[in-house]
Amino acid sequence: MEDKTRTETLTQLGRQLKSNQVYKTSELLLLFILVAAFVSAGLPLAGENPIYLQLVIWMANILMLLYVWAGLKLRGESWKDLGLHMGSFSWKMGIKTFLLSLLVFVLALIGFGLGSVIMANITGIPEPADMTGYNYLSGNLGLLLLTLVGVYIASSFGEEVIYRGFLIKRISEIGQDSKTAVVIAVIISAIIFGLIHYKWGPMGMVQTGFMGLVLGICYIKLKRRLWVLVLAHAYLDTILMVQLFLDGS
Predict the structure, then answer these.
(1) What global pTM score does this model have?
(2) d(CA 154, CA 66)
(3) Most buried pick, 33, 69, 109, 137, via CB within 10 A?
(4) CB-based contacts of 199, cutoff 8 Å, min separation 6
């Protein structure tokens, strides 16, 4: 009897999440409240150790992925509804996905560079993005490889699912999936994506914000084919991590 009541409650919650605007909005707010609380509690425990600090951020992304997954399950949806299609593989589709990911990669770099130009015109030649939190990578091949594994899971995959797939979809749904709602969703997701990189400093936030805007536009234009963005994000992360590694070699 208790299990039946619990199932009925979960089913009712899922229906509310699909139809009730208050529930939809609350889901988004609760996500960031939980993550902010987790990060606020975790960062002091990590102290000044850059590896521990990075682990806290990765764990926050994993927590958000679990939250997104729970929301999908309650709605009776799957990762496919966010754009993570898992159809049968074909070489033609694989090559097409790869080429599209290269295109998105180039466009994202342009967006990143545009953020630099805009900051330069506003503040003069600004300080570069603060990447001192990754100093532990300098010349350390072992840590580079371990970091890349974590980055591919928590950032390349996690951030695309959260900030493109989840945020754009849910914010668009609040606006009844109108064209205006989609545009607003892409802009909001880009702003949030920039803000979460606050440890990179003002320059880093603007750069990643514009990169997020380009990725969001690509997500919509490519009919929400999220794997393309995940691959493009992985290329960006690889270049950044390798560059930080080489700086100390």
Answers:
(1) 0.91
(2) 12
(3) 137
(4) 130, 133
